[in-house]
Amino acid sequence: MKKLIVALLFIFPLLFVACDKGEDETPAATPYNLVIPEGLPPMNIPSTNPLTVEGVALGKRLFYDPVLSRDNTQSCASCHLQEYGFTDPNQFSTGIDGIQGQRNAMPLINLGWQSKFFWDGGANGMESQVMGPITNPIEMHETMANVVAKLNANAEYPDLFKAAFGSSQVTSQNIMRAIAQFERILISGNSKYDQYMRGETLLSAQELNGKALFEDMEKGDCSHCHTMGSTFSDFEFRNTGLDSISVDEGRYLITLNESDKGKFKTPSLRNVELTGPYMHDGRFQTLLECVEHYNTGFHYSANLDPNLYFAVKGRMTQQEMEDVVAFLKTLTDMEFVNNPEFH
Ligand code: HEC
Ligand code: HEC
User: Fold this and answer.
1) What span, in angstroms and rounded, lies between the C-alpha atoms of 222 and 101?
2) Same domain, yes or no, for 77 and 99?
3) Domain check: are 306 and 178 in the same one?
């Protein structure tokens, strides 16, 4: 026993010295207190990239910094504008070379509950997705190696990376980690709908009717795919009959399964009032056009989702369609679009 105590007395100071030294080299970043609004489920955050105050701040700075593009003119925020729910109000975004893509930009809202990104689900993680727009030739058209070199040569970034990740050596992995951390805090959970669900406010008769139609399988049948709750989507890939032959083959481009032709990720409907134009190619300008599409406009094909294939065309009256639109507008969260933490 005596021997053990002596040994402990001897070892303890050594341990403290060792810890102290380690801390000097890599000051631990401060854990970020992510507040999930009541009514939304917990978020799965990978243990390899915990949220920290320094990491989120770095991610935000990178998100707004045009240094990520080849000619230093375009940042992520050029196509993802907070006032529009972090999407682009143009049908197609224009990249640094003046070339337009063929897809409508996507809103960045409650991404932390998703696992596949882009309209075709081509990216399997929040971290790896970041590389897509940076290296995409019609978007920021830059290489990760160049971005890393530019940031390493910058007067401020190495210190910011050190504060966030413990090393002043900028790496592409830590760029992806930081931006993913910022994306995870873009949470919307204070729309009129959320307040209604928490018993803090009432919906109008029209909004309530729209909600009922949204969930009614014989009517809107929207919640089949746009699940009520944190995201208003189950994020499955589906063909909603926008065309009988799809120009953009969507999910098929990733899986090469014939049955995935014309399938796209079911988008979230949060803040949908602000995120137009709508659909993967931004073909609809208004929410009413979207509802009309599901009511009468959809086209038949082998891949058309069964929920629509068996739906009766014209099952909603004009008034009912307008009620659904009124409900969609209860998902607008002005606190989200004005949140100073996001800009
Ligand atoms: C030139 C415009 C443009 C720029 C710049 C841009 N994006 Fe995008 N973003 C888009 C478009 C268009 C899509 C849809 C792409 C697709 O599905 O193929 C998209 C999709 C996304 C998605 C997928 C969202 C989802 O729900 O699946 C994320 C996340 C994203 N962008 C983040 C970023 C980040 C981070 C940056 C900066 C590193 C960035 N974007 C820069 C236009 C842009
Ligand atoms: C079979 C599943 C399914 C059903 C049912 C469904 N949706 Fe969708 N919704 C999707 C998919 C998938 C997309 C993306 C389609 C695309 O761009 O190709 C989408 C896109 C949308 C968009 C555009 C969002 C954006 O950001 O561009 C709106 C609005 C919308 N749906 C509302 C509704 C409403 C309202 C209903 C009920 C009347 C409904 N949806 C029923 C799967 C569905």
Assistant:
1) 28
2) yes
3) no
CATH number assigned to the domain comprising residue 81: 1.10.760.10
Domain count, the chain: 2
Cβ atoms of residues 187 and 110 within 8 Å? yes
Query: Final residue of a domain: which of 122, 153, 187?
Result: 187
Domain that holds residue 146: 53-187
- Residues comprising the chain, all counted: 343
Radius of gyration of the chain (CA): 24
**Alpha-carbon gap, residue 306 to 87, rounded angstroms:** 30
Q: What is the pLDDT of residues 288-336, one digit of tens each?
A: 999 999 999 999 999 999 999 999 999 999 999 999 999 999 999 999 9
- Tell whether 231 and 299 lie within a shared domain: yes
Residue closest via CA to ligand 1's atom 18 equals: 118
Q: Report how far Cα 95 is from the mean position of its chain's Cα atoms.
A: 20
User: Per-residue pLDDT tens for 36-85?
Assistant: 999 899 999 999 999 999 999 999 999 999 999 999 999 999 999 999 99
206 within domain boundaries = yes
Catalytic residue, candidates 127, 139, 183, 207 = 139
Q: Provide residues with CB under 6 Å of ligand 2.
A: 220-222, 224-226, 238, 240, 242, 264, 266-267, 269, 272, 275, 278-280, 287, 290-291, 294, 305, 307-308, 324
Cα dist from 258 to 118, 267, 302, whole Å = 19, 22, 10
Phi, psi of 245 (to 5 degrees): -125, 115
Last residue of a domain, one of 159, 187, 215: 187
Tokens of 340: 């100073």
Do 159 and 290 touch, CB atoms closer than 8 A?
no
Q: What is the value of pTM for the model shown?
A: 0.93
Give the HSE-up count for residue 46: Cα atoms under 13 Å, Cβ half-sphere: 12
Kindly state the helix (H) or strand (E) to which residue 292 belongs, with its residue range. helix 287-292
256 and 180 in a single domain? The answer is no
Q: Please check whether residue 24 lies inside any domain of the structure.
A: no
Alpha-carbon distance 275 to 108, whole Å?
10
Q: Are residues 208 and 310 in the same domain?
A: yes
Nearest CA to ligand 1 atom 42: 105
**Looking at the CA of 68, which ligand is closest?**
1
